[in-house]
Amino acid sequence: MSLLFKGRAQGAESVKIGAFQMLIMFFTDHLRQAVNSLGELWRSPFASLMTIGVLGFSITLPSTLYVLVKNTEQISQQWEQASEISLFLKSGVTDASAQQLLTRLRLWPEIAEVAYISSEEGLKEFQILSGLGDALNYLETNPLPAVVLVVPTSKHASPTAAGILLDKLRKEREVEIGKLDIEWLERLYALIGIAKDLVTLLAVLLFFAVVLIIGNTIRLNILNKRDEIVVMKLVGATDAFIQRPFLYTGFWFGFLGGVMAWVTVLLILLWVDYSMQNFMEKYQVSFDLTAMDLSTLIVMLTVSVGLGIAGSLLSVQRHVKDIEPR
């Protein structure tokens, strides 16, 4: 009985070793075909470089737009201050009453920040910015009212929500006038929406073009190796085995094209960073251009490799099956 149990255990162990060896052979075969596909590209450097260059520059534009959309989110956070509401208080409101108003407003869920500028502070600021200097000292009374600056939360920073908040603030008993540039906010959000739609449309069109380019390149490779494919099918090779090197070729096209696009986008961002800084300084907004970080690189390579495999897959599934020995 013990000998029978021992024999069964040795048989199970041999099965496990065989399955492990088959797994090793599977990955080894895939690695060999991947390296051979890369060697095929290396043996025709000019044609491969031309194809990779076309793919790289085709991916560069949507990748650049992707980075710009990512930076737009950061800019929109800075532009939330564009929805700032100015509340001009009544002339009879004292500083104590104004502080009570601020205390109430800070409890509102629609409001992120509240700041108070007294009439004296407003006059000093106007004296500096206007350049009138000591001429304002001859005024008998301060004509400027106290002002409360209200910054809505990001959820209530849209033109519609900010307008509703403005109507609500105007009903406060201390408020004389409420001011908000609704038209500027509407133009701002409309511009951002149009930019995002254009980014999506251009990305879809260019990605479709990349798939067509890779598919056509793989199709030409298949036609050039027609005789080899016929011989392989005569000796019993399956379509999956024949298609695998072409799929790896699409993988390398996508990967190398993505790397080229990454380098190109990085150079473009370095070139425009200085101009962007000067533009944002005019609006008194601090902004650091987010370059190609690791997450962006991973997304770009994933998309480019996926496009390469998709283009090659569409081509090999159609043309390899059509090649049959006569």
TrEMBL record:
<dbReference type="InterPro" id="IPR047590">
    <property type="entry name" value="FtsX_proteobact-type"/>
</dbReference>
<dbReference type="InterPro" id="IPR040690">
    <property type="entry name" value="FtsX_ECD"/>
</dbReference>
<protein>
    <recommendedName>
        <fullName>Cell division protein FtsX</fullName>
    </recommendedName>
</protein>
<comment type="function">
    <text>Part of the ABC transporter FtsEX involved in cellular division.</text>
</comment>
<comment type="subunit">
    <text>Forms a membrane-associated complex with FtsE.</text>
</comment>
<feature type="domain" description="ABC3 transporter permease C-terminal">
    <location>
        <begin position="201"/>
        <end position="315"/>
    </location>
</feature>
<dbReference type="Pfam" id="PF18075">
    <property type="entry name" value="FtsX_ECD"/>
</dbReference>
<dbReference type="InterPro" id="IPR004513">
    <property type="entry name" value="FtsX"/>
</dbReference>
<feature type="transmembrane region" description="Helical">
    <location>
        <begin position="188"/>
        <end position="214"/>
    </location>
</feature>
<keyword id="KW-0131">Cell cycle</keyword>
<dbReference type="GO" id="GO:0005886">
    <property type="term" value="C:plasma membrane"/>
</dbReference>
<dbReference type="GO" id="GO:0032153">
    <property type="term" value="C:cell division site"/>
</dbReference>
<feature type="domain" description="FtsX extracellular">
    <location>
        <begin position="84"/>
        <end position="160"/>
    </location>
</feature>
<comment type="similarity">
    <text>Belongs to the ABC-4 integral membrane protein family. FtsX subfamily.</text>
</comment>
<dbReference type="Pfam" id="PF02687">
    <property type="entry name" value="FtsX"/>
</dbReference>
<keyword id="KW-0472">Membrane</keyword>
<feature type="transmembrane region" description="Helical">
    <location>
        <begin position="251"/>
        <end position="274"/>
    </location>
</feature>
<feature type="transmembrane region" description="Helical">
    <location>
        <begin position="294"/>
        <end position="316"/>
    </location>
</feature>
<keyword id="KW-0812">Transmembrane</keyword>
<dbReference type="GO" id="GO:0051301">
    <property type="term" value="P:cell division"/>
</dbReference>
<dbReference type="InterPro" id="IPR003838">
    <property type="entry name" value="ABC3_permease_C"/>
</dbReference>
<keyword id="KW-0132">Cell division</keyword>
<keyword id="KW-1003">Cell membrane</keyword>
<keyword id="KW-0997">Cell inner membrane</keyword>
<keyword id="KW-1133">Transmembrane helix</keyword>
